[in-house]
Amino acid sequence: MKKIKILVDRIELTKEEIAKRQNFNEIIQKINFSKSMLKSPWFYGAIGFSALLGFIILSSTNFVL
Amino acid sequence: MATNFAYHQNALVLQQELTLIEKAKINPQFFAPIYNKYYESIFRYINKRVDEQEAAFDITSNVFVKALSALNKFEFRGVPFSSWLFRIAKSELYQSFRDKKASRTVNIDMVTIVQIVDEFCEDHSEENRQKLLKCLTLLKENELQLIEMRFFEKRSFREIGEILDLTENNAKVKTFRALIKLKKKFSLQNNEKN
User: Fold this and answer.
1) Average pLDDT value for residue range A34-41
2) Which residues constitute the domain of residue B59?
3) Engineering a disulfide at B107: which of A43, B19, B48, B126 sits with its beta carbon 3.0 to 4.6 angstroms away?
4) Whether B86 contacts B52, CB under 8 Å
5) Is residue B175 one of the residues assigned to a domain?
6) End residue of a domain, out of B41, B75, B100
7) What is the CATH number of the domain that holds B180?
8) Domain contains B1
9) Average pLDDT in the B41-55 region?
10) Are the C-beta atoms of B87 and B44 separated by less than 8 Å?
11) In terms of CA atoms, which chain A residue is nearest residue B29?
């Protein structure tokens, strides 16, 4: 990273404009979603299925070195 | 130099903050007052370093998601909780620069530019101001962020130290060195011209 862009006297958002975008419930929802993903059997099922599929494809492929 | 009073807090406020954090480790809803207290300062820190405001709001949201998810790893070290949030913000910013290949933005004000040019030479002409802007882009990232925090964001050395995980004295020394380096680059540009 060495692309630097300099902005001079950019207009800052006001306190009120920033406050309008505050949404604590959204943060809680994102955390609950990632927690529920980790607890879901579908999540592990999908990983397991992909791993099994990968193993079958690899084992059925003839590698010529 | 102005002091950020929202950042410097007394022991009682720090203790109240710690109590909330301990409660939030069990029930995340207790994190709401901390979120409301620091949202604006974290957003402003990020917004000064990215070009697009929407991206700044997204990164700010990610900072609080990360902080709340990793709250159990937080250890109180006698400094405001915001220093931990700023460190997460810094890491999220760099991640965003890598992912989006976006350019690092530095937001500066002309008044401070003129003040710095005045420190370096007596002539704060447009040419010298432009020269200083160019020199800022030639600094290393760690030097640039020290100059940015001290001169353009008016942070105290104590606050800079806590955000960058340095002692107050070390932050002072490193900022001074970065300023000397900036001055050298500025003089070099003058010599090249002559």
Assistant:
1) 62
2) 11-100
3) B48
4) no
5) yes
6) B100
7) 1.20.140.160
8) no
9) 94
10) no
11) A28
